Amino acid sequence: MTKTKFKFQKVEGLNIFYREAGDPKNKTIVLLHGFPTSSHMYREVLDKLSDEYHLIAPDYPGFGESEYPSPEQFTYSFDHLASIMDKFLESLSLDEYTLMVQDYGAPIGYRIATAHPERVKALIVQNGNAYEEGLGTAWATLKRLWKDRSPENERAALEAFTLEGIKWQYTHGTQNPQAINPDNWNLDFLKISRPGNHKAQLDLFYDYRNNVALYPEWQKYLRVHQPPLLITWGKNDEFFPEAGAEAYKKDVKEIDYHIYDTGHFALEEFGEEIIANIRSFMRNVK
C-alpha cells in the first residue's frame, strides 16, 4: 500500500492538490516546489521520510494537479500564490512546520516565513535563492523581460516552455543525464502546454523582479530569527549557482551545509543523500 495520499483542498474556490505522507502527530515538513514542476519533484522525499515525519507537498494554482484558472481571471503573481499557499496551510490547521523550498518555492516560502515567523521552525533550502549574487547567467533573458515586457522579449522567454527547454533544466549540470527520469520533463511539458498556460507562466516570469526587490526583507528575517537552516544545493545550476548558497552564510550563523556536483533539480541525482541530510537535520529541530 502506498505511503503517500493524494488529496484536494478547496482554497479561495480553487481545488488545490497536495500529497500527504506520514503521521500528523510527527514533525511536519511542507515541501514547496519549483518551476516548471509540481509536488511530483518530492515523491521520493515523501516516500522515504514518511516513517519519521509528516509531509505535505502542494501544487500551486496552474501547476501539477491543482486547478488551473485562466490568467485572464486569476492573477499569477508570487504574492498571490504565496497568499493561497498560506491559506492552504491554515486550512489544514498547520500552526508549525519546517519549510523545504526549491526554486519558486523560495519566494513563496519566504513570504510565508516573514508573515508568520513563529510558525516556521526551520528551513530546508535546495537551490532556493534569496540573494542577488545567487542569480546566475540563465537569468539574462528574464532580466531583459523585467526591463521591457515587449513581444520580442516574451518570445525569447518562451524557449523555457519547450520540451527541450524543460529537459535542459533537469539534465544540465548533472553527472549522468541518462540517469534522470524523462517522466519529469514530459509531465511538466504536458501541463505547461495547456491553453493559456504560457501567458500565466510569463506573468510569473515578469513578476519575479518583485522577488528580487524583497531579498533585503528576507535576509533581515534570516538575520533576526536565525531559523535552523539546511542547505542542499546543486552547484552546477545555471539559474542559482553555488554563490546563492554561499550568500546565506552572511546572515545565518549556523548552517548544515551540503553542496552537490549536479544541477538545478539536485533531488533527481542525489536524492538518497539529500533525504539522509533532511532526516539528520530534522532530528535536531525543536
UniProtKB/TrEMBL annotation:
Q: Which Gene3D superfamilies match?
A: alpha/beta hydrolase
Keyword hit for Hydrolase: yes
Per UniProt, what is one GO molecular function of this protein? Answer: epoxide hydrolase activity
Provide the AB hydrolase-1 domain boundaries.
28-269
What InterPro entries is this protein classified in?
AB_hydrolase_1 (IPR000073), AB_hydrolase_fold (IPR029058), Epox_hydrolase-like (IPR000639), Haloalkane_dehalogenase (IPR051340)
Task: Please state what the protein is called.
Answer: Alpha/beta hydrolase
Q: What keywords are assigned to this protein?
A: Hydrolase
Pfam families per record: Abhydrolase_1
Does the record's keyword annotation contain Hydrolase? yes
